[in-house]
Amino acid sequence: GIVSLISLAVLSYKRYCTMTGKTEADATNYRKTWTGIVLSWTYSLVWTAPPLFGWSSYGPEGPGTTCSVNWHSKDANNASYIICLFIFCLVIPFVIVYSYGRLLCTVRRVSAVNKGTGRSREQRILIMVVVMVICFLLCWLPYATVALIATFGKPGLITPAASVIPSILAKSSTVYNPIIYIFLNKQVSKMF
Fold first, then answer.
1. What topology does the record note for this protein and the membrane (predicted)?
2. How far is CA 109 from CA 88, 106, 124, in A?
């Protein structure tokens, strides 16, 4: 889950930089792409390995069908890890919202100059940006909220059954963005 979230953040930032002209799109140079992939996996490993070495722990999640961080432990060791995980693996990846918001502003500025075809392109990008941000928020905020309530709320407040849907949403988030790109990107949908 964290790899997918960080990968989406890197992708959104790369797309923002490419579309706003901060970096040039070069289809023959994969160095930046591989750097982004390696950084995503390394960053995710840095934040998922600590429970293996004693900072918090992993255990059954929800009704016991999946494994995740032990959200229910109330000790300081676990709480500090949960706070860091929340900040570095959810709040910081909110660069997605920033990147797509800035991208939308740039597209609007360009379409103000080109009134004809720019308007329909702006509307398509606007829809794609709004759908991606909503999917990001719908997938990860319920999971983060349930995790924080389980960690810092009263014991038993979050039942195993109540944690199933947020967990499934977060873990299935990797499926949604390719679908959004395929159906809302005119260049990709023309191929099908």
1. Multi-pass membrane protein
2. 32, 5, 15
